[in-house]
Amino acid sequence: MAGQERRTIDLEEGWAFMQKGITKLKNILEGKPEPQFSSEDYMMLYTTIYNMCTQKPPHDYSQQLYDKYRESFEEYITSMVLPSLRDKHDEFMLRELVKRWSNHKIMVRWLSRFFFYLDRYFISRRSLIPLEQVGLTCFRDLIYQEIKGQVKGAVIALIDKEREGEQIDRALLKNVLGIFVEIGLGSMECYENDFEDFLLKDTTDYYSLKAQSWILEDSCPDYMIKAEECLKKEKERVGHYLHISSEQKLLEVKCVEVFKEFYQTRTKHRKLTWIYSLGTCNINAKFEAKTIELIVTTYQAALLLLFNGSDRLTYSEIVTQLNLSDDDVVRLLHSLSCAKYKILNKEPANRSISPNDVFEFNSKFTDRMRRIKIPLPPVDEKKKVVEDVDKDRRYAIDASIVRIMKSRKVMGHQQLVAECVEQLSRMFKPDFKAIKKRIEDLITRDYLEREKDNANVYRYLA
């Protein structure tokens, strides 16, 4: 059965609708009274992007939407973020920077979801920069380049205060320097250029190193053993030997670089890649009963270290600070709060992780062993790929059904399924049972309803 031609959405009309969603997100981030996004809000924004990207030329606006995605971040940064940072100085400016970076990552995550179809198909075919990276690069190019000098000065001022015996906000400094590690998008270039030279300029001053060692403790992967071996071997080349103790983890970043140089002198045909998810760390955790050495992955360690600066953290706060996928964070939190070793207490105290959970460090934890290894639950990679594909297809089927029903208002079951199959056939071959299941789900979510006199006829609920 031939499908009815859907109405063409022009660029101005479609983008005006998207801007309403973007404005709503900005209001939420700015703390203005604004209700959270509902599932219907998300569906309509996602569907609008889908429609504008799948219209026949010249009405396929994929490239224009890609450009406008970047422009949205640039406009928000120049009109809202930069003015708020320029108005503040010293420690107040650092606090504002930490807040703005956290908000920016939330904005990147949400807009990437709205533009998901663009990211998955248009960008992959054109080999363009992914949406998430575009959003983070805007922050680096527009904010980092302008304020990095002020941030360096404020950081140095706080470090000098501590050297003089004053109490300072260590968590704030960790968060600020963590930004400059993250802003490099996977490399340490930004951090090294703006902070490392200062922090390491007097490598013979043990007390200076000890006083600053905690700054990088949360930001760098734990490759101390390998790095120390490489530093020993490179003693003659660098002209001096830097002693690395458990107190001096400031040198971890430098160790990674030295190991990289060392590796490159041994082979010219292989590329060295650091896979942080496979790293391990040994953490001395101080509980009320005793100190226990925890053997954990690098990501588990990063999560636990968040509780050095906070007594309680929500699921969303943990996701924001770790900047990992939801699936990865769920695995980490499950291993630390729901498995054999409950290092974290969870509210509510059940065995599943949900976005509404709250976590706190379990100071009363104890074990007969003084050294325990905390495993991660296994991941079936093949199953995960299948689940990801199924999830993508569910979104596409939902969007197709809503789009058809919004246009036709009332429609029979067979006709709806036929038109849905026709629309989706250029992406994948949809299963009839899957379409029926998605229709039932949309009914329970009040997108559709059955006619009272005929259960095989559906009515769209605006």
From TrEMBL:
GO terms for biological process: ubiquitin-dependent protein catabolic process. One of its GO terms (molecular function) is ubiquitin protein ligase binding. Residues 256-337 form the Cullin family profile domain. SMART domains: Cullin_Nedd8. GO terms for cellular component: cullin-RING ubiquitin ligase complex. The keyword Ubl conjugation applies. It holds the Pfam family Cullin_Nedd8. It comes from the Eukaryota. Keywords: Ubl conjugation. Belongs to the cullin family. This is Cullin family profile domain-containing protein. It comes from Oryza meridionalis.
